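Please, structure for the following, as tokens.
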Amino acid sequence: MTAKFKVVDLPPEPTCGPALIMQCAADVTPQQVEWLWLGRVALGKLTLIAGEAGLGKSQLSIAMAAAVTTGGSWPCDEGQAPIGNIIILSAEDDAADTIIPRLMAANANCERVHLVRAVRSEDGLGRRAFNLQADLDLLERNLSEIGDVRLIVIDPISSYLGPKVDSHVNAAVRGVLEPVSEMAARHRVAIVAITHPPKGTGTTAINRFIGSIAFVAAARAAFMVTRDADDDDTRRLFLPVKNNLAPLGKGLAFRLEQRLVADGIVGSSVVWEAEPVTITADQALQATDAQSTGKGSAGAEAEELLRNALATGPVAMKDIQAEAKEAGLSWATVRRAKERLGIVAERESHGRDGGGRWTWAMPLSARCSSPLQDAHPLEVSTLQKNEHLAAVDEVPAPPTAAPDYPELPACLRRAPKETSGRAPALGPPGDSLDDLQ
């Protein structure tokens, strides 16, 4: 029996019109990720930074721009920035009284910074606001003309989506951001977009970016700027939330410093701390949320933990670490509480090598300020003149002074004995140690 096969005619390959653009994986040459800021901001990719108004997001982007225009160093010994040109799109800050003074305060090379102010109309007579949906080709043209552009700052990105783009619609946001990412890849330029958090609290850091989740999805790395709930109002935290290209890594801390950059002109700049921070974005946001809703802060909780732990004397540091971990407190929070309370750290000496465990103790001033009357007197019987046990309520009140032991701090030692008009410690007047023999 002969099998019968049906011959199907395939449609001819179209010579025009829409068609899939495909590439065999074997034809793709693997490449290393190129970094503007090692492990944080990649060249050819979109990076997102979110945070509440007034916390320093824009100043942070200016600090990044200053590093790139001068080939400066990144904080915490994270390498040097590749030197290059910058393009800034800023919809909220004025160039003359805000952006330029900030660049000067950050010691940027302003010759390398280019500001997009508006788009000139086709007739050359009018102007309108730039938007990524309609004017991306114009931005790419200028990018090529300037040359050697390493960073584009978009602040905030919601102002440049276009008049008809709903920032809460996933497909609409992707339709704008995907061409932007493709342009970044073609020119090997890093794009840092600034955004704001949504209203309300109670969500994780990954959901604290306003608008559609497409913003975070399109970005290869995302960061959060927030206050440090355990510090004064000037310390800011720059914390990683997402990173598709490298380990998430640690956060950084910074403060904003005002500087006189010209006669009567002041600009603010970022001053980084020398060490990274270990607190996560989720932990930091939970702390600030608790503080804003009156539930206290992690710093206050850490102080209370230390006071309780050290109330009776020095405690091994590893035991405090274990208590902090059980309480859900970060070690950085506990260390800051230690500094605020003035807690003393000492290493116990064991042998000639001087090795030994570290202990923490409350400062001497705190120990001396504790009133002795807070201690509860021991409820024990004592011997009376006729050498019988008296009931507790029959015993004269014991002296409140502490024994005069030489090894005690001076503030805890008893004053010299006064025998006039005072009964000895063992009973009423007339008693002596000889009576008890």
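Residues 370-396, 399-406, 414-437 have pLDDT under 50 and may be disordered. The CA atoms of residues 132 and 139 lie 9 Å apart.
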